Amino acid sequence: MQDLMDQGSTPTGIHHRIRQISGINKLESIFASFSITEKAIFLLAGGILALGTLSVLHKLSDHFTVEIPARGGSLVEGIIGTPRFINPLLATSDADKDLSTLVYSGLLKGTPTGELVPDLALRYSVSDDGLVYSFVIRDDAVFHDGKPLTADDVEFTILKVQDSTLKSPRQVSWDGVTVTKTGTHEISFTLKKPYAPFINNLTIGILPKHIWQNFQSDQFPFSSFNAEPIGSGPYKIVSVSRSSQGIPTSMTLKANRSNALGEPYITNLSLNFYSNDKALKEAILNGSVESGSNLSPATATEIASQTRIVEAPLTRIFGIFFNQNNKEILAHKAVRQALSLSIDKQSIIDTVLMGYGSIATEPVPPTSEVSFTQDIERAQEVLTKDGWKLNASTSEF
To answer: Which of 34, 132, 236, 391 is the most buried (most CB within 10 A)?
Structure first.
């Protein structure tokens, strides 16, 4: 009985296949009955339908897909200048500062938008009177050699900055600041008077005490650790290429997986050093490097049509400083205000900096756009209110 049933039955899958073949044959038969014109119209309509479907699917994909960066890869970047002190306490040139930022990390870190976010710090607070800045350091913060980073390292770094024997360019920013270690991972800084821009100083890279405590302050500039540094930043220096004269020509850095803010997305970073703006421009144009930094506004404008220019705010301010001792008239606040109001700052940015700049209304780099335009009438009002009189014959005060 079972054999008869097997021989006389048709598997379900075969039924489906027969129906599919039958359907295809019917479509072929219908298509064959079309005239040449009807076939052309049918194929055109089918093509339009296919393209429309693909377009809709593409838009849906763009709408629901979120791009996220992937870790890995490499980048070759050009830098103007030769590094001498890869040390946040001694760095003076742009090359020194760029490398110190990559190798070392501070309690806080600046973002591309100019904001400050915790780096080595887990959290921090500022007292109501603006005098005390208290920090809690991450428990998992470590240096490139695996040694833990604690409040001892932060205290050591700041006390070295304040040491006049070291002659650190950062000393003036820390004069009069009292450093108090309140725990293994807690430290505070006390100012003599409130100074809001002080918080920017807390981006300074932290030195490993277990290495640098073996050097006297006057020996710091001669240490080999200025060329082969150990920090806690996002990158470690793994190799250095030098010219026949022993001058560094390039460096290779590798991502630090133990970085407090996480492993950087670019794994391998190569830095090539160039003596001037012109040499870096040629390297960018001939493909020797993939990117370059600190180009002059004139050079950036010159190559803008041949490459992509990315702008980021720098903690750099250009200003006019008046010596009130030499010119008594400058001692009057109203005169200084009038001068500030009468200067066309936007014109200076457009003509001197080729548009690569923003107006600053205070000595602290702006973190947001501020509207500030030339106002001659307002300048005259300020002077008149202060008692100055306009000379009718010369139209000057």
So the answer is: 236
